[in-house]
Amino acid sequence: MDGHPTHDAGPLDPWLSMWTRPRATVRRLVQTRPEHAVLLLAALGGVAQVLDRASWRNLGDHYGPGAIFLAAVVAGPIGGVITLYLFGWLISVTGRWLGGEAPPSHVRTAMAWGNLPNVAGLLLWLPALALIGQEMFTSLTPQLDAQPVLALLLLPLGLAWMALAIWSLVLLLHGLGEVQGFSAWRALGNVLLAVVLVLAPLFVLGVLAVMFAPALAA
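Above: the chain sequence. Below: its structure as tokens.
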């Protein structure tokens, strides 16, 4: 990973440099055009997230592929942008608790561009769907069970998705660390604090529901 030079030598193409020089890339982006492709990356990231969740949760058992793809294309971009703005603000708030200095707009830049590998993972859906189609979204996989060679062909795709997800996390933490003036490890703490802010109210509501459920049922 890149360090913290005062000046970056030459222009950077963020679509290429983000993969190996996240700090320099995010630094240049927030200095020159912090909103560059941010909404596009957030929207495409939302599409990828809907498809991933549909696969993990076997939503094809209840919905047809058309409904899943429609949700990915319509709800995915909306959810991706909402998530970007919500967590961009929360991470900016929790970052200040840790001594960070980034405004929400710079946090959004780091988040969106850190998601670049996950967005690139959308391309892997093409061979996956060509191999087993709707079985990417179902718990029952008769075609895959009948042709074990398909599992061998899908294995590299699964490993590639895993590698891209891990690299997205690495790029996010380095990009966020750059705008906050943090190490990547402190950036991880910054993200975890934001997640706690979201989950804590849900936890409290769950506890209250369990406590008062008998009284409400009586």
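Residues 14-217 form one domain.
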